[in-house]
């Protein structure tokens, strides 16, 4: 299935949900947004994860300066240009304004205000301490109230807990799928589709696991193993094609569309012992120490995590793992830490490519050259 077919099918899926009386809540694709609460309140969560087209990026210039994150620009461009394949975005009823980063806030506020989409608010702390955990719980209650006021009925704890279990099973299956050794482009496409549809994709996900489990890549195929960290590769982005054309294969996606999402799961003992669903999500927020919204120790945690993955991979396969730190241009969260991340990992003899780019087609050749040169060093 190509992206046009996927997006067409997804548009049909959303229209069917709207006909059932469901409302759609859109939000920019970062972590910490409580999809389970949105689902339990009877809404359809729609994660914006579409970028890679410079037309979308350029269409935001009337709203934000060009020195803004290229992904945030693309999100605005989706609503400004309204390309045919993204017409389903017109079905969004509400848009969450959150504070993952400055660009997230600006883009979300612009989308809500200038494209007449009712606004919901959900803010999270950058720190991890007792006060920030209390604040996160208060924000969950506040979002619940906003959703209840729209639908006119209370979100029951039983329904909320049921939704948490549903998403937890879904993420466990995503984690299982991520461990299958197939081409990175094939893996990424399934992960993108799954995260767009949510738990309703579970039957197809189980089908893909059965399909790919007996067709895994052999270690002698000559491809260089890559861990992608930093910014995600979104639907319609060509970056993964450039990596594979250069002889690399992304075997580990350390991004929002990847491990950052499906690693945040609960053990059955935790789900059974903790009755309060809000406490469960607070605990998940507390344990999310590898996301770039975790201060002050995010960078040290990330370096230790990547080093462990690298050493485990080398011990298991005898092969080195190259690290590509994908920096979406003007992404403050990732770019400001990129030099320190690279230096610290290279001190440990782990090779790193800091690959900063926007979605311009004009730099495709330059990106290919840099990627090929890096892969030759591994």
Observed structural traits:
378 residues, alpha/beta, Rossmann fold, 4-stranded parallel β-sheet, 16 helices, 12% strand, globular
- The average pLDDT score comes to 94
CATH class of the largest domain: Alpha Beta
Strand content: 5-15%
Which sheet architecture does the biggest sheet show? 4 strands, parallel
What is the count of DSSP helices, taking H or I runs of 4+ residues? 16
How many structurally independent domains?
Answer: 2
Low-confidence stretches: none
Strand order in space, largest sheet: 2-1-3-4
Helix content percent band: 40-55%
What's the gist of this structure?
The chain has 16 helices and eight strands. With about 375 residues, the protein is of the alpha/beta class. Helix 6 crosses helix 13, helix 7 packs parallel to helix 9 (about 200-210) and helix 14 packs across helix 15 (about 330-345).
Explain the overall architecture:
- By secondary structure, the protein is of the alpha/beta class.
- The protein contains 16 helices and 8 strands.
- The chain has helices at about 5-20, 35-40, 55-60, 70-80, 100-115, 130-150, 155-180, 185-195, 200-210, 240-245, 260, 270-275, 275-285, 300-315, 330-345, 365-375, and strands at about 25-30, 45-50, 95, 120, 225-230, 250-255, 320-330, 350-355.
- The strands form 2 sheets. Strands 2-1-3-4 form a 4-stranded parallel sheet, sandwiched between helices. Strands 6-5-7-8 form a 4-stranded parallel sheet, with helices on both faces.
- Helix 4 packs parallel to helix 5 (about 100-115), helix 6 (about 130-150) packs across helix 13 and helix 14 (about 300-315) crosses helix 15.
């Amino acid at each position: 299935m190509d992206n046009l077919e996927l997006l067409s099918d997804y548009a049909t899926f959303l229209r069917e949900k709207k006909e059932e009386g469901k409302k759609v809540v859109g939000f920019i694709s970062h972590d910490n947004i409580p999809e389970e609460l949105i689902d339990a309140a009877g809404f359809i969560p729609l994660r914006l994860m579409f970028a890679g087209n410079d037309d979308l990026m350029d269409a935001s210039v009337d709203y934000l300066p060009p020195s803004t994150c290229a992904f945030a620009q693309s999100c605005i461009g989706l609503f400004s240009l309204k390309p045919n394949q993204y017409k389903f975005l017109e079905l969004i009823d509400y848009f969450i304004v959150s504070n993952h980063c400055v660009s997230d806030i600006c883009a979300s506020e612009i989308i809500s205000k200038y494209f007449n989409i009712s606004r919901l608010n959900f803010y999270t702390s950058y720190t991890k301490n007792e006060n920030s955990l209390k604040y996160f719980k208060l924000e969950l209650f506040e979002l619940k109230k906003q959703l209840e006021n729209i639908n006119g009925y209370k979100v029951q704890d039983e329904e909320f807990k049921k939704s948490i279990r549903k998403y937890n099973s879904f993420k466990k299956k995503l984690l299982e799928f991520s461990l299958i050794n197939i081409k990175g482009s094939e893996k990424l496409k399934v992960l993108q589709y799954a995260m767009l549809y949510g738990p309703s994709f579970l039957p197809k996900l189980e089908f893909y696991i059965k399909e790919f489990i007996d067709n895994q890549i052999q270690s002698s195929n000559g491809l260089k193993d890559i861990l992608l960290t930093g910014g995600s590769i979104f639907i319609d982005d060509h970056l993964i094609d450039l990596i594979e054309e250069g002889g690399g294969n992304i075997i580990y996606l350390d991004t929002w569309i990847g491990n950052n999402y499906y690693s945040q799961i609960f053990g059955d003992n935790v789900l059974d012992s903790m009755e309060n669903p809000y406490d469960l999500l607070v605990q998940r927020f507390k344990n999310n120490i590898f996301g770039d919204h975790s201060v002050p120790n995010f960078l040290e945690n990330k370096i230790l995590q990547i080093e462990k993955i690298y050493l485990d991979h080398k011990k298991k396969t005898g092969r080195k793992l190259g690290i590509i730190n994908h920096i979406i241009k003007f992404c403050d969260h990732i770019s400001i830490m990129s030099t320190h991340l690279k230096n610290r990992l290279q001190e440990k003899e782990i090779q790193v490519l800091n690959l900063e780019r926007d979605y311009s087609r004009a730099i495709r050749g330059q990106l290919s050259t840099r990627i090929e040169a890096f892969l030759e060093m591994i």
